[in-house]
Amino acid sequence: MYHGKFTAPHPDGSSHALDPFLQREIKLAKNIQSTLLNGEVPTFNGGEVSGSSLPARLIGGDYYDFYPLVNGKMRIVIGDVMGKGIPAAMLMILTRGAFRSASESTKGPGDTLRAMNQALFKDLRALGSFVTLFCADWDPKHYMLTYANAGHNMPLHISGSTGNIQTLSKVKGALVGGIPNLVYTEEQMHLDKGDMVFFYTDGIVEAQNTEQEQFKLERLIQILQENKDKSAEELQESVLSSIHTFTEGLPQKDDITMVTLKITSDNSDITSLNSPVI
Amino acid sequence: MLSYTTLEEDKLLRVDFKGDLDIEATELFQQELLKKMEEFQSVNLNLKEVPFVDSSGMGLLIELVRTLNEQEISVKISNVTEEVFEVFELLQLPEILGKDVFV
């Protein structure tokens, strides 16, 4: 939480209040990003999705989005723009635009990443920046998750029947802005009733405590195991709270973002869409 | 915090890094190191004592190699730890920079 005046650290360690004009600009930028990130979440019978993002600074470079498709599938994306703060946030908005327009015209997650890389490559190359992205299509009719990866952390699958937690089968792909005209391969996985998929950015596993120890994947898995029976939103709150406890109030080093897909019953047709029908 | 020492051998500059490579290294890479490296024909980045590289560090590394290559300066990245190389492979760094960059 941010209270009082926005301040900027100086090299000498002191901090100076920003001028009111700049404060207002930053507040507006934060509102724009927060509104775009926290759009209406699609609801569907037989399951739920939830997403949350906590920037390390006033605004951040992490990104997640849901895009319901006309064929009844739902496209999920999570990503991390290199860097932090305002520069990363500007590129995050660019990434969001590329995702939404690619989703209109592409068949699957691999094709979406290919189109996004194609659209963003020149700009990212010119700016010396990169974006990691993980894109997945959830097919509620056939209970299939199809996914492709552009250099992002592999999400975790939490089995509802056994409680086992494993990373999804690896699928390789260079980060967006890395290789021009790259084709991204896809993998598929069948999900059962009670299963969950947890997508996240590296700000979670790389959160550090006062001993400079990282939160690491092992701790994340433990928290997910302890809270797997909660709703998608409550599960994410538990993850956030355990990171806060672990870091003992140290300033957050990187943006923290997560998306949870939870299958709760046998009927999971998507019933509410948050975007125009193509 | 990342620190480094350098060793100059004729037209080769070896840079031995120590510490985590993350966004904190931005100024070090883009202002201090790049200028120094541009004076040499080849550069060896020794990551033996770099236990962790995050996505921002990865971006800095890619941008540094690309910028030097554009000036026809040859770059090698050596002694990458197994854990860090796993992340490099996930991001397909060998494909982006060329497999011969890693020694």
From TrEMBL, chain A:
Signal peptide per UniProt: none
Record keyword Lipoprotein present: no
Keyword Cytoplasm: no
Occurrences of domain PPM-type phosphatase (ranges): 44-263
Entries under SUPFAM superfamilies matching the protein: PP2C-like (SSF81606)
Name of a matching Pfam family: SpoIIE
InterPro entries xrefs: Bact_Sigma-Reg (IPR052016), PPM-type-like_dom_sf (IPR036457), PPM-type_phosphatase-like_dom (IPR001932)
GO MF annotations in UniProt: phosphatase activity
Protein name, entry field: PPM-type phosphatase domain-containing protein
Automatic annotation (TrEMBL), chain B:
InterPro entries: Anti-sigma_ant (IPR003658), STAS_dom (IPR002645), STAS_dom_sf (IPR036513)
All residue ranges annotated as the STAS domain in the record: 2-103
CDD domains noted in UniProt: STAS_anti-anti-sigma_factors (cd07043)
Stored Gene3D superfamilies: STAS domain
GO molecular function: anti-sigma factor antagonist activity
Pfam families linked to this entry: STAS (PF01740)
Recorded family membership: Belongs to the anti-sigma-factor antagonist family.
Alphabetical list of PANTHER family matching this protein: ANTI-SIGMA FACTOR ANTAGONIST TM_1081-RELATED-RELATED (PTHR33495)
Name of the protein in question: Anti-sigma factor antagonist
